TrEMBL record:
Keyword entries, A-Z: Signal
Protein's name according to its UniProt entry: LysophospholiPASe L1
Any GO MF annotation of the entry: phosphatidylcholine lysophospholipase activity
Residue span(s) of domain SGNH hydrolase-type esterase: 232-398
Signal sequence, renumbered to the chain: 1-22
Gene3D superfamilies found in the cross-reference section: Galactose-binding domain-like (2.60.120.260), SGNH hydrolase (3.40.50.1110)
InterPro entries, per the entry: Ester_Hydrolysis_Enzymes, SGNH_hydro, SGNH_hydro_sf
Length: 413
């Protein structure tokens, strides 16, 4: 039996009409989970196990299992399934969905449950959150404007849950989280939708950042090489690396994008890296995945995908370890600078050990920047960082010659 459950008074919900607004469009990619699996997760979705509030105990305890289910689904031929035999708090998430303050939005998802916890906060939850990546100081207030729908019983057939609202001021992106929340059992999600009454000029989502470097890529295509072309792929640590200052007179290209996860880098790797036929590729990635509680195996698998693609294109590859972090700059007034809460040193070491093994298996260079930077306690020295996570010029001065040596050591004589 299929039911309709309305949780936000949707009878009065209507999008603006007229020439200024386009028809509402579902901005979720792979909303029905019909696309192929990538590294054990549905394409365009990622694992999300937040650690806030309990130090990550619930997120790690259950080690929830994720799969696309081809035997239980609402529409199409697949649904996403999350299950755990212990209480856990894990989700599949789609982030960086573009939105504008004041837009009307409507979210819906079909949910089915079996053996879920009930009472208190336990059960299954679908949540829409709003953020401002360019100004993280606003995110605490924005997350208070999140909206969610939840299961109301332990066992239930496919039920449609809905909620709606208006994008809060200062928000620039939304994200959708489909949770097994503080409980155990199995939940299926299918046919999700996040619609906005969007201005007609709105562009399609670009969650992987494929358009970010489009103009720079076009310029680079027409430029003559001034030597070996080396492309640096990564997140904000790479983006903040002044390659011209660190490597003068070298044809080194920066393709770091702040805040990115490894799956996004895999997605944009062909146009941001391979299209330029690099002689070598430097990959420094993974700290944001750890911050999002991505399993180490998935992080390494994504980086391996880039390594293999670069090798197939004939490029040498340098894989860098994930950098250490520190809480030394945190104060009562700046608790967000407690970096080890989301990036536990033990997890960083675990991922780095797996990266080393992967690099050896792929016969590419591995550079242990963690060891080069860490103090006697395994932390990033406060003198080398601006915020406990990102390097300052002195920090980049430590790693630049190490990476250059690795690049040069693989050159053919």
């Amino acid at each position: 039996m299929k039911q309709i459950l309305c949780l936000a008074g949707l009878a009065g919900f209507a999008f603006a009409v007229g020439p200024v607004y386009a028809q509402p469009v579902n901005r979720l990619d792979n909303a029905s989970f019909e696309s192929e699996m990538i590294n054990g997760l549905p394409d365009d979705w990622e694992l999300f196990c937040p650690v806030a509030g309990d130090g990550g105990e619930l997120s790690r305890a259950g080690r929830a299992a994720f799969a696309t289910d081809e035997s239980v689904y609402h529409g199409g031929s697949r649904a996403v399934r999350i299950s755990s035999d212990k209480p856990t708090r894990c989700a599949v998430l789609q982030r960086s969905i573009p939105c504008q303050a004041g837009e009307k939005w409507k979210f819906s998802v079909w949910m089915k449950g079996s053996g879920l916890g009930v009472g208190g906060d336990a059960g299954a939850i679908a949540r829409v959150s709003f953020l401002n990546p360019a100004d993280p100081s606003r995110n605490a207030a924005l997350t208070q404007r999140s909206a969610s729908v939840r299961s109301e019983s332990a066992d239930f057939d496919w039920t449609r849950l809905e909620t709606a609202g208006e994008v809060p001021a200062d928000a620039t992106v939304a994200q959708v989280e489909l949770f097994l929340w503080k409980g155990k059992g199995t939940v299926w999600f299918d046919d999700a939708s996040l619609e906005f009454a969007a201005p007609a000029s709105s562009r399609a989502p670009d969650r992987a950042g494929k358009l970010r470097s489009r103009n720079a890529n076009n310029r680079l295509t027409g430029q003559p090489r001034s030597g070996e072309r080396v492309i640096f792929m990564g997140d904000s640590i790479t983006e903040g690396w002044n390659l011209r200052a660190a490597f003068p007179d070298q044809d080194f290209v920066n393709r770091g994008i702040g805040g990115q996860l490894t799956w996004q880098m895999v997605s944009r790797f062909p146009q941001d890296v391979l299209s330029h036929k690099p002689d070598a590729v430097v990959i420094l990635a993974g700290t944001n995945d750890i911050g999002g509680a991505m399993p180490p195996e998935i992080i390494v698998s994504n980086i391996r995908s880039m390594v293999e693609a670069a090798k197939d294109a004939g490029a040498r590859v340098v894989v860098c370890s994930i950098l250490p972090v520190t809480d030394a700059l945190a104060t009562p007034a700046s608790p967000q600078l407690v970096r080890t809460a989301k990036r536990p040193p033990g997890v960083i070491r675990e991922v780095n050990a797996l990266l080393r093994i992967m690099a050896e298996d792929e016969k590419v260079s591995f550079v242990d920047l963690h060891q080069a930077l860490a103090d006697e306690h395994g932390a990033l020295p406060a003198t080398l960082t601006v915020d406990g996570l990102h390097l300052n010029p002195d920090g980049y001065a430590v790693i630049s010659p190490i990476v250059l040596k690795a690049i040069q050591s693989g050159r053919k004589s």
